[in-house]
Amino acid sequence: MPIFSFDITSDYDKAEINNVFAQVEKEIINRYDFKGTSASIEWLRDKSGFKVTGENEWQCDAILEIIRKKLAVREQSSKILDLTAKPIVRNLKYSREIPFKSGLKQDDAKKIIKQLRAELPKIKTQIQGEEIRVTSSSKNDLQKAIQLLKSNDFDFPLQFVNFR
Q: What's the pTM value of the predicted model, to 2 decimals?
């Protein structure tokens, strides 16, 4: 009897994020309400997130909204944005560091596994580093698992990869 599997990860497409950055930067330059202001977007170290700067909270929120729209257009989840950091107000500038969430944390992986086991007891799950391997002898059960997870609103993005 064949065994089928897939992996659950939480990551983002780096090429698409580069495109989002370029598009947001271009829109900031071209928007009339940002002309002559300190509104900008920069990369955090190693391109691990964005740093948004404006003259006030409103400008930073407007840039964040642009980022969300560009992510949606490029089919990237805005859940990759870690918005927990407090804004920094310094020298009449308002800035915010927004790192990207990448990899499944152990607690998140355990939540997923608990739910899968409760709903679909026939499938097997295993945490492998920052991803989860899901196996079953039935492709239908694997598809049900994917549908179940897609129907939940986790605060982190999920991708389903390595179908075998």
A: 0.79
